[in-house]
């Protein structure tokens, strides 16, 4: 049999299912959204909540190997799935990536640099963290944050109470603010035979806490890029990863790298690979979790990726469709709520010809307008 089970029905599940189909696998999606992005392109097993163990069991019985795009399945649910079928990446990796403190402790054990941090369990901890880290610093929930939700920047002592009260009762972590030159990420894949490949380093720009634009390759020194890839490779190996993992990093102004967080699944900042690489992150992911050898993560073009977010960007969809340079990807979401990721576009350039600021804008055609008010 060759059925890939994917937990989670969003756009990452959709694009993974399409990559699976290309390789001759069927995909079964476990999802709470009967007509969501992934359910539209593959067989869906729907459930009301991800802790419905009967549904988890039915799903696991129907597939050969399980992966996920939804990261917040409970430890119990994971154990259940793992008792029935192989789950890749394995549960111990998900448990680390689900919890920012577990993640930072893992990095420390493996000599991977991160921003200075303090666990915050009560209000007194927060005062101590402020003293140790200095202002400004960032307070984050340890779990369930995404797109910058579940965090607050604290600029001085007058902001402590509001940040604390706004994020409680969840467990929290305080992080020193990294004064970064830029943000980068690396997609790394590893299979059960220990083969590891890394895609070229991506440079990422956020807007309102949400990834807006990625550039590949990142405009950083080759030596720095090699170090970023080496960090990603070391993380994948130390985790004993089978699958694909996105590693977000800050490039400090002093030239050092600090890992921000990891995501053991295809990553938004890797979407440029869909058009600029012979085997993209989703194909690599499917190959890794199904035990196939990994081809080189090579890149034939430079690329700019822009996310299509909310109703403003989607209002431009007809113009995007009419612009042949824009390689567009639609996620099939019915409703374009503000801040929601609805799709993305890639624009390709010959290798070495990634343009500067104005060129990027010009290449994005109708979407350049959306950049203006950034
Ligand atoms: P994602 O959607 O990437 O999962 P998230 O909600 O998990 O986002 P983070 O990635 O931790 O949150 O933070 C969001 C953004 O906030 C980062 O990409 C970065 O721009 C900024 N940021 C987070 N932590 C720090 C830090 N310690 N120093 C400086 N900037 C930071
Ligand atoms: Mg995150
Ligand atoms: Mg992040």
Automatic annotation (TrEMBL):
GO terms for molecular function: 5-(carboxyamino)imidazole ribonucleotide synthase activity; ATP binding; metal ion binding; phosphoribosylaminoimidazole carboxylase activity. Pathway: Purine metabolism; IMP biosynthesis via de novo pathway; 5-amino-1-(5-phospho-D-ribosyl)imidazole-4-carboxylate from 5-amino-1-(5-phospho-D-ribosyl)imidazole (N5-CAIR route): step 1/2. Keywords: ATP-binding, Ligase, Nucleotide-binding, Purine biosynthesis. ATP binds at residues 100, 140, 145-151, 175-178, 183, 206, 260-261. Residues 104-290 form the ATP-grasp domain. Its EC number is 6.3.4.18. The keyword ATP-binding applies. It comes from the Bacteria. One of its GO terms (biological process) is 'de novo' IMP biosynthetic process. It is an enzyme of class 6 (ligase). The keyword Transport does not apply. It catalyses: 5-amino-1-(5-phospho-beta-D-ribosyl)imidazole + hydrogencarbonate + ATP = 5-carboxyamino-1-(5-phospho-D-ribosyl)imidazole + ADP + phosphate + 2 H(+). GO terms for cellular component: cytosol. Gene3D superfamilies: 3.40.50.20, ATP-grasp fold, A domain (3.30.1490.20), ATP-grasp fold, B domain (3.30.470.20). Belongs to the PurK/PurT family. Catalyzes the ATP-dependent conversion of 5-aminoimidazole ribonucleotide (AIR) and HCO(3)- to N5-carboxyaminoimidazole ribonucleotide (N5-CAIR). Homodimer. NCBIfam families: PRK06019.1-1, PRK06019.1-2, PRK06019.1-5, purK. This is N5-carboxyaminoimidazole ribonucleotide synthase. The gene is purK.
